[in-house]
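Q: Can I see a sequence and its folded structure?
A: Here is a first one.
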Amino acid sequence: MSKNSKVLNLKDKISGNEVDLSLCNLTEVPVRELALFPKVTVVDLSCNNITSLPPEFCNLTHLVKVDLSKNQLSSLPDDMGNLMNLQHLDLYNNKLTNLPVSFSQLRSLKWLDLKDNPLELGLAKAAGDCLDEKQCKQCATKVLQHMRAIQEEVDHAREKRLLREKELERKREAKQREREAREREARKREKAEEKEKRRKEYNAQKAALAAQEQQKKKSEEKKKKNGQAADKKVAVESKPKPRRSVIGLIFKLLLLLLVGLAGVAAVCRLTDLQKEAFCLPINAAVDDGLSWAKEQQVVLRQLVQNLDLYQ
């Protein structure tokens, strides 16, 4: 069947604001076709073989009354709460066990039938028997209350989960900050150690250079001292030895001769040897010398007297 024929058939089933699609052996809801008729607010899909509603079904926000009884629905879309105008919903005789949490947002819902569904205990208790109009209205009210409680629990659980995730994130961030702080401290310590190492190496190099310079200075001083000592030695060695004066030698010889003569004269004149033959000429010479000296003394005295007269 083509899309146009579907639309044509759907038009044939529309009466005013209602469309009757019951007993059509449908396995799925013609959502696209229903969306083309926004004035249709009442849809009867009962007595078909529909197993699920597509997510797009929740976009049919113009719907007011929907009959899905006697189908094979095992679940409803998560966004079922988007049908804000829905007032009447018949889900009798399906395979539902739970309702989506968003069901609590159907604030316009006034009538609900959930009997003959394998509902979970809490939901079944809230739904009641739905045997008449009054019970179906009560079912709508109580089920909405039940779903709102579930919604609050879900919201509370979500908040707790968000808080827990936030706390975990905060702890992760704190650990990350601590790790980054440790890494910064480690880098800072490494830089300080590297700087200290370079400083020690610099000081060691400086001390080695100073020691080399000191050693060089001492070596130069030692060489200088050795050079000065060598220069002095050379100067001393190169200093010319005084030449012996011939005159001095002659003078010394004469002095020795005179001393010898004086000794001989003293021996010959003062000892018993004066009568010996070799002493006679010596004594004569001594006497002549003494006489000559006396004469010279007289001459010298006369010369002094004359000088005094001239003064």
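Q: Show me another, different protein.
A: A second, unrelated one:
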Amino acid sequence: MMLLEDSTFLTYQTVQKYFLKKIKNGVDEQTITDVLTKRTYNQRREIAFAYERRAKKDMISALKGALSGSLETVILGLMKSTAQYDASEIKASIKGLGTDEESLIEIVCSRSNAELMEIKRVYKELFKKDLEKDVCGDTSGDFAKLLLALAKRAEPSSVIDYQKIDEDARALFEAGVKRKGTDVKCWISIMSERSVPHLQKVFERYKSYSPYDMQESIRKEVKGDLEMSFLTLVQCFENRQLYFANRLQDAMKSKGAKEKVLTRIMVSRCEVDLKKIRQEFKAHHGKSLYQTIAEHTKGDYQRALLNLCGGDD
């Protein structure tokens, strides 16, 4: 993400130029896009405060009135902190009739303990409800139990216990591939209560017990939302940035793009680990993320995503 550090733009005249500038055919979307996608979240908030002080208007409302479609979704997402954005996406995934399980799984199963703790705090602040209760109220069965365990997990010990590694690897095997049916409770317990370094070693050790690796075992043992959840967890434990790179590739592997997935990952990871995601994308898919976005999007939406991407590898 190409971030500009200069804060001299925070005068009313400059803010007015960027956000109230009218051109013959309407709003100058390109300028709005370039300014907001090339700043950090904190800088965008400074711009919003300056705008509101001088114009006596809420900048978010002004942006909603000026923009539309996919571009509006990106820009409004960028006006939230990463935790606020994730919390809002979770709320949207369980709001109304039906549940967007894919979005819910991506966020809850891919975030670190620290990120989930902040998301829960912000969720309570924004919606006056507990995230755990809302998620459980909209899901069921082992899928709900797994999400609840992840949402409630405490920071595990970072101490590597090699005896425990072997015990966990054997337990995962005996709870799944070795028996008829799957002891999902055991899988949930291990994957929600252990540290990432510990689980990485567990999955490596698991191969000495099972003829299949952990991901293959999951595909054989469980289906549906539970399968997707466990796979997301294991993929993120093994290489979180590769998981997001693969999600981006899947969102753009056919003509056009799955804009919802593309937007969510680009907005939520742009100030977290997008540079590493770009590196994994190029290494595993033979083309840069920048080039792939350019091929599958267009217009101001494309411009916004390319600005967030920050460069062609």
